[in-house]
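Late entry, evening session. Most of the bench is empty. Finally got around to the prediction I had been postponing all week. Sequence below, unchanged from the version circulated by S.P.
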Amino acid sequence: MDTDPWISWVINQIIATHGTMRINELAQDVVLSRRQFGRKFTERIGVSPKAFSQIVQFQYALELANTTNKLVDIAFEAGYTDQSHFIKEFRKHTASIPSDFFLFIKIMSHFYKNKKYVQGKNDDTH
């Protein structure tokens, strides 16, 4: 199936606004009703425009977490209404709370940075 030119434009708009652009605005910009827009977007992308926007917004929040540890700052910068909204979305995407998730990432990063693999040491064939 060929991609309609409008779908590329819409995806670029969602990414450029870090998932915070309103779906109604996008539908109006491509001169479709919200219902038509949602149906056509889902047919072509595989998820609803709202779900896609939420994923993009969450990915942006994860990028921000590399520069700050304050959840309230991440939530505000990523466009969430407040910290509790961010935590709710975080749990939806990771099944974890941010502090547990980032601790796990830190531990795993440390493990893989410092892991010494010795050739043949774990080899059971000798």
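Two things to note before I forget:
Residues 120 and 126 are 9 Å apart (CA to CA).
The chain has one domain: 5-114.
Will write this up properly tomorrow.
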